[in-house]
Design brief:
two-stranded antiparallel sheet, about 130 residues, about 75% helix
């Protein structure tokens, strides 16, 4: 469903990117929709951002932290404790945004270089065509 090999999925489990699935009586892994959703998030971050495994682990940690916070924040009665949790999450998300911004900056620079090469090719083609006429 995700286009990944069994080996890759097991490796993602091993390094903590994917939470372990339940097992059948015969020992087969039983992946749920949550597993598929997580794998799609990982693939998206990997493909779109070109993230390393470490960066993917950090990304997944932020998602998990957010989900835990969302589930548990209503149980926290003290406003100060809620605020501290939210500020911690805000710092973590800020680091993720900084990483994304750095990648976008590099990608924008790379795109500009490729566009410059394309412009040179187009100019060379124009020169050849104008000489043929």
């Amino acid at each position: 469903m995700c286009g990944l090999t069994k080996r890759t999925i097991r490796y993602y489990e091993e390094i903590g990117l994917l939470f372990p699935p339940e097992r059948s009586e015969g020992g087969y892994r039983l992946y749920s929709e949550k597993h598929v959703e997580r794998l799609k998030q990982i693939l998206n971050a990997r493909d779109v951002l070109g993230s390393s495994l470490q960066e993917l682990q950090e990304y997944i940690a932020v998602i998990e932290e957010f989900q835990q916070l969302r589930q548990g924040i209503h149980e926290i009665r003290e406003e100060k404790a809620k605020l501290e949790k939210l500020e911690g999450l805000e710092r973590t998300i800020g680091l993720q945004l900084t990483m994304i911004d750095q990648k976008l900056e590099k990608l924008t620079g790379f795109r500009a270089e490729v566009m410059e090469l394309n412009d040179r090719v187009q100019e060379a083609k124009r020169k050849i065509i104008s000489h043929q006429e």
